[in-house]
Amino acid sequence: MTLAQTAKRAQPSQHNLKGHTAMTPSSPSSIPVVLTIAGSDSSGGAGVQADIKTIAATGCYACSVMTASTAQNTQGVFDVLPLPVSHVMQQLDAVFSDLNIVAVKIGMLANAEIVEAVANKLQAVRPRHLVIDPVLLSTSGRMLLSQDALQPLQDRLLPMADLVTPNLPEAAVLLGYPTGDTEDESIQRPTEMIADLQRLGLPAILLKGGHADDPHYSQDWLITASTTTMFSAPRIDESNTHGTGCTLSSAIAAYLARGHSLSSAVEAAKTYISGAIRHASQLDVGRGKGPLHHFYQQTVEQQTIGQSSLISPSIKLTDVSDITQYKP
């Protein structure tokens, strides 16, 4: 069964695009809780570690369920150890039985058993917001999801999501395009993917265009069944981009948890990640592609007022330009 066939058969859930409102907090002062379900990055730049930093930096409380432990640094991924599915299930039970989770972000799931376990739990608890970053490949080309996990990911998890955030190579895999070389013509012409992605029948997809060869702009496309919105921002000349996909999807989940609409959450997340990339070189971490500066706002605030204090989690929506809407 194809993803498109499965998506058409999937029943609407509580966390599709229409009718989104933020979960009512238990008290006026309670902070929105966002759960990340993902793998660990031993260097701290991606995975659960990047998610937790992002969620905290954007004004929410982060909790986590770890699916795998990876041995990696800024130069590559050297080993992947999926955790026992029983332990993943225990983590899920622990957080959902105690915490008022408003939004869930899913990253690396490693294998089919974990995909099925996560799908079963989310079908039972029905979180208000669900963002899925389909982590299939590392930047260096290492597979981070077993081949037999792709079908249950497509059939069971993706149709439940508010938003799926593939980059161009990941979208090519989901669509069944020839894979391998990121210089492939289908990846370098992302607008040709949009109609195919719309036919999948998912509530919304954010196609990330960072792998395209435009030297001046980085463009992402928010795709729904009827419309496509393009977000365009100047491409930043910065080599420290480790963990950008994890960071963007986590920021979107956090802004959804704070009550933003989907398009507003994407815009705010892009603004946040632009700043985190722009200030990444200040960290000077590792010998390869270093991490983003997730707390750049706090650093800027300290430099501005000359004292150590936490800043407001509000994000100024000024870095994302040239937003156009069209119907293909």
Automatic annotation (TrEMBL):
InterPro entries: HMP/HMP-P_kinase_dom (IPR004399), PM/HMP-P_kinase-1 (IPR013749), Ribokinase-like (IPR029056). This is hydroxymethylpyrimidine kinase. It holds the Pfam family Phos_pyr_kin. It comes from Vibrio gazogenes. GO terms for molecular function: ATP binding; hydroxymethylpyrimidine kinase activity; phosphomethylpyrimidine kinase activity. The keyword Transferase applies. Residues 41-293 form the Pyridoxamine kinase/Phosphomethylpyrimidine kinase domain. GO terms for biological process: thiamine biosynthetic process; thiamine diphosphate biosynthetic process. One of its GO terms (cellular component) is cytosol. Keywords: ATP-binding, Kinase, Nucleotide-binding, Transferase. Its EC number is 2.7.1.49.
